[in-house]
Write a structure and sequence with these properties.
The protein is an alpha/beta fold. It folds into 2 domains: 143 residues, ATPase, nucleotide binding domain (Nucleotidyltransferase, domain 5, 2-Layer Sandwich); 170 residues, 2-Layer Sandwich (Nucleotidyltransferase, domain 5), CATH 3.30.420.40. The chain is built from 9 helices and 10 strands. The strands form 2 sheets. It has a 5-stranded mixed beta sheet, with helices on both faces. Strand 6 and strand 7 form a beta hairpin. The longest helix has 32 residues. The chain is globular and about 65 Å long. It starts with a strand and ends in a 17-residue tail after the last helix. It binds 5'-O-[(R)-(carboxyoxy)(hydroxy)phosphoryl]adenosine. 5'-O-[(R)-(carboxyoxy)(hydroxy)phosphoryl]adenosine (KG4) binds next to helix 4 and helix 5.
Length: 339
């Protein structure tokens, strides 16, 4: 039997719809929101309005690109949270109307679990490059930095997480103080390629277990700029590449140190990375180096599945469909949900 799921993602500033059939991706349509660039961060009210504008055309495009009729859909999966409440409400309300009109079930999806399950999306029917359970997943985005032990597609436990800022936030906030545009992560990534990672030494946290902290690094970066700018007002301009390289290097060291410790303690050799920061070229390279050094089997997502996308929501929905885990019409989004 063919199971065809429409996924809807609207948790932050990307409106996305995707179709997955029996785990194979048929389409993944995304409308980003340029409106936030002028504000240096996502403005929740503007995000909700843009979702409201984009949702119908994006769904229409996803269905057309998949080459299916909407009557072929088995269910609609939507992101219930975590995320911005106004943004989530657009996706949830659309899903209710759409599912009711087609008389098909509705499936709620946890956005964080969806990032992990993106690794199971098949590019075609012969694609067998999926992780084996149990595996560790480093989930790094603008709002999260977590190490997740994935025992099954419906059994995940967070074994470490940030106690303050997320890794993406550290990239974005440090980029902001350097006067770089939002989001800063990709800009730092580009500049770092030309710089010397050892040019400046930045603070690394000393906290127990598998938890992360990035606020000390952010402060040490800020103080470095403040002190050097007193001596040379052109300091940032003249050292942009080295500052970016040092920042990126330190963030990656912090992330990989704890991940290596967790993999060693739990004797797990299968390790994945997910979330927006997994697009970072330095982090991808570090994964490849660790795979070589510690005999890890690594899973790095295609770029399209690093940032928010509905394909991962549809994939999660597919697993839940197999378990007949549907939700009722009174399901409401939550801005905060634990894994
Ligand atoms: O998962 P995501 O799209 O959504 C949120 O959590 O909001 O992650 C966005 C984050 C931002 O902080 C952005 O700067 C970061 O991912 N990011 C990167 C790169 N591409 C996106 N950080 C470092 N290097 C990149 N190439």
């Amino acid at each position: 039997m063919s199971i065809t799921i429409l996924g809807i993602e609207s948790s932050c500033d990307d409106t996305s719809a995707a179709v997955i059939r029996n785990g194979v991706i048929l389409s993944n349509s995304i409308a980003g929101q340029k409106v936030h660039e002028a504000y240096g961060g996502v403005v929740p009210e503007l995000a909700s309005r843009a979702h409201q504008q984009n949702i119908i055309p994006v769904v229409d495009q996803a269905i057309k690109q998949a080459g299916i009729q909407k009557e072929e859909l088995s269910a609609v999966a939507f992101t219930r949270g975590p995320g911005l409440l106004g943004s989530l409400l657009v996706g949830a309300s659309f899903t209710k109307g759409f599912a009711t009109a087609l008389d098909i079930p509705m499936i709620e999806v946890n956005h964080l679990q969806a990032h992990v399950l993106a690794h199971f999306i098949k590019q075609n029917e012969d694609d067998t490059d999926q992780p084996q359970f149990p595996f560790l997943c480093l989930l790094v985005s603008g709002g999260n930095s977590q190490i997740i032990l994935v025992r099954a597609y419906n059994d995940m436990v967070v074994i470490g997480q940030t106690i303050d800022d997320a890794a993406g936030e550290a990239f974005d906030k440090c980029a902001k103080v350097m006067g770089l545009p939002y989001p800063g992560g990709p800009v730092i990534d580009r500049l770092a390629k030309e710089g010397n990672p050892k040019a400046f030494q930045l603070n690394k946290p000393h906290i127990p277990g598998y938890d992360y902290s990035f606020s000390g690094l952010k402060t040490s970066f800020l103080y470095l700029l403040r002190d050097e700018l007193k001596k040379n007002p052109q300091f940032i301009e003249e050292n942009k590449a080295d500052l970016s390289a040092a920042l990126q290097y330190t963030i990656i060291e912090i992330l990989m140190d704890k991940l290596r410790k967790a993999a060693k303690d739990l004797k797990i050799k299968e390790v994945a990375v997910a979330g927006g920061v997994s697009a970072n070229s330095g982090l991808r390279k570090a994964f490849e180096e660790y795979a070589e050094k510690y005999s890890w089997k690594i899973h790095i997502p295609p770029f399209a599945f690093t940032t928010d996308n509905a394909a991962m929501v549809a994939m999660s929905g597919y697993f839940k469909y197999l378990d007949k885990e549907f939700c009722s019409m009174d399901a409401v989004p939550f801005s905060r949900i634990i894994l």
